[in-house]
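Hi C.,

You asked whether I'd gotten around to modeling the 843-residue construct. I have! Everything is below, sequence then structure, no commentary in between.
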Amino acid sequence: MNPKLIKTIFFSLCIFSFITVNAQQTPAGGTISGKLVDAANNQPLELATVSLVRKSDNHVVKNMQTDLQGNFSLTGVDDGRYLLRATYVSYLTFIKDSINITPNKRAIDLGNIKLRQGKGLLKEVTVTAQKSQIQLGIDKKSFNVEQSLVSQGGSATDLLANVPSVQVDVDGNLSLRGSTSVRVLINGKPSALTGGNIADILQSIPASSIETIEVITNPSSKYDAEGQSGIINIVLKKNVQKGFTGSASASVGTQNTYNGNFNIAYQNSKVNVYANYSYRKGTRIGDGFSDKTAIADTINQTQNQTQNQSFTFTGQNIRGGIDINLDPKTTLGFSTNVNIRDRDRFQNGATLITKNGTLLQRINQNNSSTGSGTNLDFNIDFDHKYKKKGEELTANINYGTDKNNNFDNLFSEYYDYSAPSYLRTQQNNTTIGTGKNWNIQADYTLPLANGKLEAGVRSNINNSDGNYVVDTLNNTSGGFDYNPFLSNRFIYKENINAAYTNYQHQFGNFGLQVGLRLEDSHIRTSLIDSVTVPHKQDYFRIYPSIFLTDKLSENQTLQLSYSRRVSRPRDRQLSPFIDQSDKLNYQQGNPDLRPEDTHSFELSYINYWKSLTLTSSLYYRLTNGAIQRITTPLTPTNIDTTLTTFENIKSASNAGYELIAKVSPSAAIDVTANLNVYYRHIDGDPALGLTTTSGYAWNGNLTANLKPFKKLGIQLRGDYQGPQVIPQGKMRAMYGVDGGVKYDLTKTLSLSGNVRDIFNTRRFRSDININTPYFASNQVSERRFSTRTAIFTLSYRFGNNGIPQKRKDKKDNQQQQDQDNTPDDNGGQPGTGTAQPPVKSKG
């Protein structure tokens, strides 16, 4: 192992040990503890929310989430009378009244608190609290978009940039803990939305149509094995309240930004009908430059490029569905999602080429492009619960289609000063892309003594067809002629069949989960230009996972996990066609690329203090056959043009430490901090002209929420991405600050505003170094996708939206009585139960 890598792991272990030792300290004051379980099967309820309310002023003094075994411990409680409130997704709220902390009784153990699933109409909520912006778990983090003020009026890309562990680059591409190989799911399933250009699609989805973002850094065998660094699951909004509900919002901002969102839904004991429409339009202005110096023999040549660009995009997202309760234990659901988007891009720039100090050539470029895309997703969901508590069968059939049409007009002027001449070229590119995706899966859960068994199957069929037609200007006739040498058609077909099983068992405070996933993959590609060139890849792989969990104390949990992952190359990386749209920088895929094979290890620790929730992780990923972008001269004698392609290198590894902490010193303030420090090592390959590269990198962000008084909310967020190594150079540091504010005009009407990149500092900068026996070059580049933007949003809610209803059916009353009759271990008043809207919806 590399010595620097060993030092990184040792340093991280020291930090980890320091945190663990300090976690053992017991704060002064009283302690209120207990365990939340399902009233039907006594299964622990993990990550449920527990709040402690002071009786004298109804002020929430403490909040925390239960651990993986449903335990909670509120420590450092001052003497006084309190009310305890416990809530969990789709369960009746439990309220324990008249809890007394006195000098004679500082420790209160409430024992097992049984929560019952809420099936009736909403009843009056005695105590209200804001949804948590982020829920932290050992293997998953859930981010609530409604509390992200800096993202309101923005896109899914803007929202993802605010999520801990996630970074977004200048082109809207995602990375997780420094790795760009990440799997994106919609409502927990593969989707046509994620099969096209994911960067464009995320830009077209308004943040207002998203319920939560879930980040799973080391998934078990239950999940798709795709994605080297993990999974990002985008959960779209779905109705979770009884009766008639709705909301509407409108946004306007700088750079021609206009957004709108409308939700409407109705639910009773038989059906749940919901619909959402979102509209997004805006312009983003960017710029950049690139300075390159190339040396070959006695030639010293420089290229200085400047570039200005603007993107105007329009996106519409329509989602609707119905859930039918066939009987008390069986639900059949139908849903659809439509994404419609348009994008116009204008780009102009100039390039000066100098050789040995003499101006050789000037190139002016004016490019424009228009594009449109449509994605359709259709889902059938089935859910059946058996008589045995916890035994469940779910199934899903998903069909999606994807269609993209793009037209590019590339106009260039060449001024040659060595032999004075002028040349004008013009090229029209038309791209028609279509895709179809089938996903069929079924999952079964069987509870066992002190554990459970899970099993499932999945089949995914993904076909895409990209037809690229090029017409070039005929300077003699003035018309455009079809160019067969630049035109091509690329077909990609993928069929993956999988089966998995997971077994969980609890041995007191120690938990074990082992899983195995089998995947049989068949990939076919064809490049059709003058001839048809087919390629195929068939492979069968076994993906094991293991999770070891140890409950150190009532509020501390330690987990060690391992999983095997895969990252399959996609159509752009596989197509052998040479893209010559940029005459100085060609690009070409590699049909012989092999899938990356990743072994992921993670040691995670979670703790709940009286006002602090802490999740920290040590992780190590070894990727064999890592896919890297390689840039070389087009030919040994042509240093004017470079060729960028993709190759499998021997291996690449990341070792790091991540810390996520949420501090809530009072009900008016909470702060969430994320720090990720890692060491990256990339093996060199002399045959590809690559030297071994390694180095440290880090990124962090800080989000502060302030609530000076009940109606006003303020949010500030800052992020910093430190320098990091890439195969042929490094990325430079980048940072930015965002801010937002929200004011509730009435109970149903609110006004908010935010500014993204307040100081206009977010720029992506890189240094690329290429060294071969016959050629050496250095390139310094800087780009930014967007400058500072400001957005104002007006939101209105109507219908029930949490307003109590008067109707109560017999079943609800009986369930309420059962909850009220729960034994009161503290000698106080019986608790009261009320159904609480879930934090997240079922996908």
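If it helps when you're writing up: The mean pLDDT is 82.

Thanks,
B.
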